[in-house]
Amino acid sequence: MIKLLAWIGCGFVGTVLLLPTETYTNLIGYYKYVSLFCLIYFIYGFTLALWRGRRSALLQLFGWLVFVATAIHDIAYSNDRIIWIDLQLVPYGFILLVFIEAMELARRFTNAYRTIGTMSDELIAMNRMKDEFLANTSHELKTPASRQDDCSAAANEQTSGRAFVPRACTGAA
Fold first, then answer.
1. Which of 63, 78, 90, 134 satisfies CB 3.0 to 4.6 Å to 100 for a cystine?
2. What is the b/e burial string over 163-173, where b = at least 16 CB atoms within 10 angstroms of the residue's CB?
3. How do the domains of the chain map onto residue ranges?
4. CA 161, CA 156: separation in Å to the nearest integer?
5. Cα four-point dihedral sign 52, 53, 58, 60
6. Alpha carbon distance 91, 97 (integer Å)
7. Which of 63, 49, 145, 47 is nearest to 96 (CA)?
């Protein structure tokens, strides 16, 4: 659906760039209908996100509803259907939408930095635990190794004629 709408939009842009003014001016009504359909599709998407419990979908839905309302007003105004407000409202709706999207983006960055800070603290704690584990493991591994070194030294001394053998090497504890 999105690709189809994108191709239709490219077709409208192509008519503006390639065809004479009279031709694309006659197509402006179709452009308005496609624009309204796209905006309704956006509203459907944000309503679906709100229904699925997505964060901040309500705020974005509100922003898009205001923008769609201003777009509908301006389309009706350009067709001489509204005469009581002599003003184009889409720029104001767009500014509100951009402000809402900026707030949402700032909220997401704040949450991301908060998550990064929490994960960093957890990684530091896990690194400390790893260091303690390696220190304990190293100590535990060195103790039998030093016994083996003593036993091998004793065996070397025994072969050289000395008769001293440590108790740990004989199996007597």
1. 63
2. eeeeeebeeee
3. 1-88, 110-173
4. 9
5. negative
6. 10
7. 63
Judged by phi (left if over 0) then psi (alpha if -120 to 50, else beta), residue 20 lies in: beta
Helix, strand or coil, per DSSP, at residue 164: coil
CA distance 69 to 102: 20
Using 50, 70 and 90 to split pLDDT, how confident is the model at 105?
very high
Picking from 26, 20, 29, 24, the residue whose alpha carbon sits closest to that of residue 11 is: 24
HEC states along 85-140?
CCCCCHHHHHHHHHHHHHHHHHHHHHHHHHHHHHHHHHHHHHHHHHHHHHHHHHHH
Question: How far, rounded to the nearest angstrom, does the alpha carbon of residue 165 sit from its chain's CA centroid?
Answer: 67
pLDDT score for 163: 53
Cβ contacts of 74 within 8 Å, gap of 6 or more? 88, 89, 90
> CA-to-CA distance for 169 and 154, rounded, in angstroms?
8
Amino acid (1-letter code) at residue 44: Y
What one-letter code names the amino acid at 98? V
Length of the chain: 173
Tokens 């002599």: give the residue. 86
